[in-house]
Amino acid sequence: MPDKDSGAPSNQDVEMKDADKPEQPQPEEVKKDADVLTMEDIRQHLKHIEKAVSTKEPRFMSRALRVLVNLRKRLNSNVLRKLLLVYYPTGSGGAATKNPLLDFLEEPMEVDKSAGGVRPRTGKAAALTQIPEIDIYLHLLVLIYLLDQKKLTDALSCSKQLMDKITPSNRRTLDMLAAKCYFYYSRAYEITDQLDQVRGFLHSRLRTCTLKSDYEGQASLLNLLLRNYLHYNLYDQADKLVSKSTFPESASNNEWARYLYYLGRIKAILLDYSEAHRHLLQAMRKAPQHTAVGFKQTAQKFAITVELLLGDIPDKSVFRQPMMRKTLQPYFQLTQAVRTGNLKNFGEVLENYGGKFQSEGTYTLIVRLRHNVIKTGVRMISLSYSRIFLADVSQKLLLDSPEDAEYIVAKAIRDGVIEASIDHEKGFVQSKENTDIYATREPMTAFHQRINFCLDIHNQSVKAMRFPQKSYNRDLESAEKRREREQQELESAKEIAEEDFDDFP
After folding, report:
1. Using one digit for the tens of pLDDT, what is the confidence trace for 302-331?
2. H-type helices in 113-173, by residue range?
3. For every residue of 405-451, which 3-state class applies, written as one string?
4. Cα Rg of the chain (Å, integer)
5. Is residue 27 packed enough to be buried (19+ CB in 10 Å), middle (13-18) or exposed (0-12)?
6. What is the arithmetic mean of pLDDT over 436-465?
7. What is the pTM of this model?
8. Which residues contact 31 (CB under 8 A, 6 or more apart)?
9. Is a pLDDT exceeding 90 seen at residue 72?
């Protein structure tokens, strides 16, 4: 009997848990709450934009634009439609700007009664809506939504309307926002494979931004033009643009990372491998530490290829990074083929991953590695044999004839790859004794490269430092005032303690 009585409460608890299940929120309520949170976040960002316009402080505008990446994942037609209805006036002027944007959004299936509290701004709030920055920011949100929804035709039309608003404006508070709009304008044409049609417009805007000292727009437009040229393999024109323009020093780290990446690709195609490798390493250092994984993977692929072209072998730890291991697998096999000087393995890698290399834009550079593979093979043979016949060299390197081996070995000797001599009559290669490497210029060259690397990091770190304004200490109290205040607080504490002790019975 006691066991049955003791089990009764547990049965009642189970029934109560079952009864609680219907009280869980429905999916519609969760969705509505997500839309409400998104609206609140966008309102907060719009307040930052209004504050940036009123105070002329670009950091508030930067704070609003910095969260676009996370915000775009939560945008939907209902949120954007409510924003447009709230932040545009109801008059004819507001309708002329609002209706073209509403045409890009889907009509709601049914009227949401909860939206009855959403009313257009009136009074002073309506005057703030007339700020061009608010209008362009909302227009940009609509464009980003259309791009994410793959509505490319509407995105093109929306981007053209956005540029029609930005082009005639001459407001310095709009510079940072306009730079972001240029990117998505070019992105809309890139997705539709019409990137060549915007080149003239980008050049004209770059000229205007340069004359106005609009550094944000100048940096963004330079990167967009370089991306445009590289998309069509116009490396000579891209190199001329770089030589005739100056990238602004005050540009953001993200723009610097893009610029250095494009510069590294240009220098690699133009055979300036040392500069290309330096620019690619700087681009990866400028990139965000925990995000932009795709950018760092792409830059790393080019850096590995350029390092192989320089005759160096990348460190194995590069290929063991968790976020790089899978995507760099073909390049790891390529590195092994170059390191061993095996032309057969090199040909197999090209045959297996040729399509992947072409899609990633590294195929042109990888084809050049064949000469490096042959040089490595000649060096390995020179270290292994003091004397070897040219026919055997041709067989080991998988060449067509001993004459080809003779030309290749002669070029390796002239380039300083090996220390040897060729006996043309008897047809063999005689290797010389290994000299002390510390008697050559190679150690000095290696130290010079490392010192330059450290100096570059130091210079970039100094440039990236931010110092407070000279007037920052006006509101700070001096050391004497601080000591006086601390002394007064200490005396007050003693008096309070004494009073409490006197009142104690």
Report:
1. 999 999 888 888 888 888 888 888 889 999
2. 124-129, 132-148, 152-166
3. HHHHHHHHHHCCCCCEEEECCCCEEEECCCCCHHHCCHHHHHHHHHH
4. 33
5. exposed
6. 81
7. 0.74
8. none
9. no
